[in-house]
Amino acid sequence: MRPRQWTKNGLLFAGFIFAGRFREPSDELFSGLLRVLIAFLAFCLISSATYILNDVVDRDSDRAHPEKKDRPIASGRLSIAFAVSASAALALAGFALSWFVSHQAANDAFLIVALVYLVVTLLYSFFLKHWVVIDVLILSAGFVIRVIAGCVALPVTISEWLVLCTLFLALFMGLCKRRHELLLLGDNTATTRKVLPQYTATLLDQMIAVAATLTIMSYSLYTFTAKHTHFLGRESPWVMLTIPLVMYGVFRYLYLVYRKDLGGTPEDVFTDRPMLLAVVLWGMMVVLLSIKLSG
């Protein structure tokens, strides 16, 4: 079920934060927050269902992987029949919660987005992960779908800039993960992941540099187009004050990938205190500025 990766579903809260709803009446604020929390839980269940199916499909190649060989299905500790049954139960529970969220939002948008996420993830697990470049684009699309899901759960307007920022950041991390796998597996790349021999370290380095640049630029443009508010004696899109933290975060991530070899599991970067501090400070600034924007 990979509960460590449930942190990815935190993207569902992006719409709630960036829509600047913190100054709403308390009953509306908590109603919206509760709805996003239920949406978050729904995606945790659905994503876990897809992780299990992915491990069933990849069980043979995982046995040749130095890290994945200890996964329950690959190691034989968990039967395929039980795994498939558990996956189905998790998916049903996730879609039951998705229906509830859609019912509360008075539209079917969240249920549809959850279904799209399931279909895209299954297509990746069975087919698309074997196509070079397409594999990382589909992985990135999964993050974008999470952001869209969080917006329609409320519902709030979906910002095209928020979508682009999420896409480029996810692409950046996905490419770093491919680079880690390529260097880790060496001559066994084709055995554990068929698409890896199509990449080279040089190609991935170039693509990572492009994705990092796009991430910083798209976020910067996003903040420039944010709502203006009167703060510190002038009107300006004050969210742009968070740009240095985003730049630091991207550069620190590159440092961790190239010097500390942490690119294989993105959630492990939060064990790095400077990175964690940067993320916490960024989150606090965004929330505080969102409150100011709302006021």
Describe this structure in words.
With 295 residues, this protein is mainly α. The protein has 2 domains: 1-158, Tetracycline Repressor, domain 2, CATH 1.10.357.140; 159-295. 68% of the residues lie in helices and 2% in strands. It has helices at residues 14-18, 26-57, 59-62, 72-75, 80-105, 109-126, 134-153, 160-185, 189-192, 201-224, 243-259, 273-294; strands at 229-231, 234-236. Strands 1-2 form a two-stranded antiparallel ribbon. Helix 6 runs antiparallel to helix 7 (134-153) and helix 10 packs antiparallel against helix 11. It is globular and about 60 Å long. The relative contact order is 0.11. The model has no long low-confidence stretch (mean pLDDT 87).
Which helices and strands appear, and what pairs or packs with what?
Elements: H1 14-18, H2 26-57, H3 59-62, H4 72-75, H5 80-105, H6 109-126, H7 134-153, H8 160-185, H9 189-192, H10 201-224, E1 229-231, E2 234-236, H11 243-259, H12 273-294
Antiparallel strand pairs: 1-2
